[in-house]
Predict the structure.
Amino acid sequence: MTTLLKNAWIYTPQGVIEGGYVAINGAVIVSAGTERPEGRFDCEKDMSGKLLLPGLVNAHTHAAMTLLRGVGTDLPLQRWLFDSVFPVEGRMTAEDIRAGTALALLEMLACGTTSFSDMYFFPWEAAELVAQCGIKANLCYPVQAFDPAEPYEKNESARKLERFYRDWHNAAGGRIRVDGCLHAEYTCNLHVAAGTAAWCRQDGVRMHIHLSETKSEHDNCVGKYGKTPAQWMNDLGVFDVPCAAAHCVWVTAEDRALLREKNVSVIHNPTSNMKLGSGFAPVPELLAEGVNVALGTDGAASNNNLNMLEELHLAAILHNGCRHDAAILPAAQVLEMATVNGAKLQGRDDTGAIEAGKRADIMAIDLSAPHLVPHLDTAGLAVYSAQAADVCMTMVNGRVLYENGEYLTLDKERVLHEARAAAGRLYGVQ
């Protein structure tokens, strides 16, 4: 199928194209520019008054935690996790995971997210939903080992991860990727962490981890091993494969150098980190030192939404304000974090920009709302002004999945019904 998006404002890092055209053949962008391409198209969409942006990449989330939205409010991370979250997760079934993930997909598509990296249990349920609805995802099963003596060979979570990889890696035409995963240093022992890293190296599997999210995590690791969490992970071989490290709030200067040396991508989760009182990552330093930094929402239990436009806004104003420097994290750079940097982290170098040869992963913002007038600075509009309600189209691989409030591949009412039913099972409320 061929598609022409016409009369649009098109954002590129080189500048905005006004009244532009994006020609798409199947899943791939053929051209993007001011001239109408020759030939006929199966579908033409008039995008007058619309701003086209690369689709957003949510580089770190726990999709099914939409069902934990509101759990453990006002608690710091360790108490929130062990006293509030883990007990609920212990009651969650595959049916609950499916319901929560489907709810998350509604939320993400409606705010222009075209790909996400997810770490959660029962990933088979998530994979089936991703395959069905048309979005892209890097999925994983979190490996954990609370017994310090448990060997890798006896660890059930590691077996589940390996099985999930065999079942789903590169499925749905490559839209689904399966990553390796260590939940965190404080939820895993040396044997299982080293074994998981060795398996990833052997099979060429990317890795997704939590790293240095809180001061207590950092300090406890140093006290236990005489190493920071980053040094601990590196010494076990975790960084010997392409690795995405979520949070990195408490990384040291030496840790940052190590992340750069090992080409580790960092995922900034500003809302979650501040809501839980953890702090925030040294993003300006990481970027200046050449580390690839992406953006994520974390789960809806610690955010409490999956709105990547909100993360864009907060990431920009947070660092500008704290550093007393309005230019330390420019809007265009924040957009890169949420698009091309996130795509790089996922190993998807064929997306992240609206240009010939890239996959047609595109979001559209309706510029008619009062808070988006006038259109003087498109990057600034996207980062500082745009709201999720302004998103009028989300396209993945040239296929429209969401348009003008309608979901084309998901049954919204059914998803909401099943999410409420799952909440009823878990909490006795809807």
Notes: The mean pLDDT is 96. The first strand starts at residue 2 and ends at 12.
